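Q: Structure tokens for this one, please.
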Amino acid sequence: MLRFLFVLLALGLAAPSATAQITFEPLPVAAEDEAPEFPIQGRPVRITLDEPADAVKVVWRPNSAIPDTVALDAAGSSFVWTPSRAGVATIQATSGEATVSQNVSVRYAGFPASGIFILIVAATILFGGAGFAMGKLLGGESPAPYQDLMPDT
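A: Here is the predicted structure, written as tokens:
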């Protein structure tokens, strides 16, 4: 048992610790604007790395069957990035063999028109069908083929 604890201690001390971090700071578009709290599509974001990296890339839709990877021009440890689309993205900074990654959620700049259109169509179908069914039920007309049938109990 003691040997097992020594092995665990040795593995814990030998494991490399990832201390490098990636921080995001959304920037205001104009001087009089206030900086948003979260990254927004089409607005600049300052990305700051603890250490300069050889390569920095953005992976849109990470861990999916169809990720989209975009390389960023990382000159130094701080640079500006403007997200081209909304959604979940992973920023990966590679320096030698070490890779540091940070997930970020980029929000839409406004309400997406397609989402509002789909909401209106779905509500029309749902409530229209319910209204049609209630009208048929409470209309006072009884269906002709079912007048002579006894209820199934």
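A few notes: The chain has a mean pLDDT of 82. The helical segments are 2-14, 113-138.
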